[in-house]
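Key idea: predict the complex, not the pieces.
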Amino acid sequence: MALQLRRKTHDSVIYIDRDSAPRIMPSGEDFILEDLPIGTRVLYPNPPIKGLPNREAAIRYALNHPHGCDPLFAQLEPGMRVTVAVDDISLPLPPMATPDIRQTILEIVLDMLAGHGVDDVHIIIANSLHRKMTEWEMKRMVGPRVFAEYYPDRYYNHDAEWADGMMKIGETKHGEPLSLNRRAAESDLLIYVNLNFVPMDGGHKSVAVGLCDYESLRAHHDPQTIRDSDSYMDPARSELNRRCVRLGKIVDEHLNVFHIETAINNRMYGADMDFLLKNEDDFTAFDRMKFEAMRFGMSKLPRPARRKLLHSRPSQYELIACHAGKTEPVHDRIVAKGFEQYAIPIRGQADILITGIPDISPYNVYSILNPLLVQVMALGYHFNFYRNKPLLKKGGVMIVHHPCFDDFDHNFHPSYIEFFNRLLPETRDAFILREKYEQEFANNPSYIEMYRRGNAYHGAHPFFMWYWGENGRQHVGKVIAAGAENAHVPAMLGWERADNLTEAIAMARSYMGNSAEITMLHQPMIGIADME
Amino acid sequence: MAGAAFYDLEGTLVSTNLVHTLSFYARRQQGLVSSFTKSATTLLSLPVFAVTDQYSRKVFNDLYFKRYKGQSEDRLRYFSRELFDEVIKPAVFPGTYELIEKSRQLGLRQVVITGALDLSVAPLMEHLNIKEFVTNRLEFVNGVATGRLLPPVMAAATKASWIRTYAEKEGISLSDSYAYTDSMSDLPMLSIVGHPAVIHPDMRLKQTALHHDWPILNLK
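Result:
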């Protein structure tokens, strides 16, 4: 890359020079310090936008000044049937400090419904084929008052495998079927309470995906759709988004949806761990002390305890925007606000992209980041955090830092285990996997029962996780797992392994050349590389 | 080649076990004294049953079925419908119906293999619409139970052996078949199918299931 590209283009972009401090990288449940080669470009998340001073007022204002429809209170009539659907535990990450924004919205909305004589109200968690939330998680998300009043009869998880609980809504002209939760579909009013964490969230995806069944989902959660989404974090270039919009039109034809969307800033950690969001060159002595104390403390703990500790730290996100009304105008505004927080202007693609994989993903809340989830974080989420064009050149090398332990949660991810051990040794081709095995897993009675009565992800979910990495898998020339504690997990994923980052960079340079441009995503990277 | 779903019964699809059946019949002896005596001895036998079941299923069966010695076949059959209505039907796990239905939708043949007695199982099979089931059968001489079982005795490896023979005869692919049980003694049955799963396992079976990455179901 020409030297001019190394000019500082944005406050969130740092170049490593001779005097730079080592950088902190997450690697599973650990945080490591790494000296990066001189010239390495490091992308930090933008500073958090200041949260709204009175979020209750912002929510009330949004409900009373909606986009494209009457205010919520004007749509209410005594005796009507209302369903409130809410996003599940997969966002934000980690789960936010209480009160959760969903709790605040629900308390306001439910009071308004009660005040207008609306008694027939159900709250449904729009978990789609995700695991059902546990009782404790459900209580934490909505607060004790709502929980006590509605759980379990009127506050429950969506069940995509309950045939009587689903209802066929229609089909797009492209042949995509749509079945939705019957209670939601038959309600006079469906209120959707969204929490937008990344640009892929929200919009028509909320109802059309969150409340659908397997057959509806598989129509767009497929390898080709992901390949055609460049990237799925960029709604304008996302085939997945286009398909969701098509389905959303059908939803709007049949249901009266009042969408409440929220945007949050990226303040993932509170004062105890906020140094993880800072440029290491700007660390104060206190920041260094906090980091060393954390590292020392964590080093004395076994991995499950470290994981437990990290998962017990609630995030400190703040509400920065709330809009309500018809899905599309609401979503456009929230996405724009989200990009205001996330977008980092970047010039020039990298030859080598480095990213540490933290123990955080939408699919392992209070659980293990198993090998398939490491894959989805690397080639799915981290790779796709771009707009316009990939941050990594076509054929470039992606270095991920993670122990790649062969460990799965038997309660949450039972079908992942079979997928990983039985299918991946046979093929990594997403199209073959879909054709040959997806429906077998989806219809496996054991997995269905574990999804319905337990807290397991749906039998087909590991396939979607594999497809989720399809765009990245087609783009990168090579993935190197640095710090992998075994050889077989990277091999099963089709990756190479290295003992440490230095070795991985040397391997990547031998492939891309010694003058290869290196970029590192400084995790936790809640940001989008806005490529020129 | 088609597959099948093989189920253990007690503890797997229903919450009752062999002792519930024995207790039911103990309470329905001729005369109060006899009923009381039989119930009391059944109660006192429970620790022995528990220990022997952990030690060996065969020893458990030998001890357990001896308790039926002297019972008339007519009486056992007469009360079997009442046993189903009062004890077994309420004990069917809610998820049992869904599991069987989903399995049936896959085109799998539904087969129950249980160590329970035929006379207590038949009404339940009718209720679950399962046509193929194999059970243990008491030996009767002149209409009176001897306390012994007619071979083959369904337990542990015998179940696996029966499944193998059945699969061969019926052209069933064991690789495409499923097996469900709650008991460690059914490990052989789990080992021979392509899709083993455990339901409400005890500690030992749970550890085994975790070790082998088998699904662990809860139908309650």
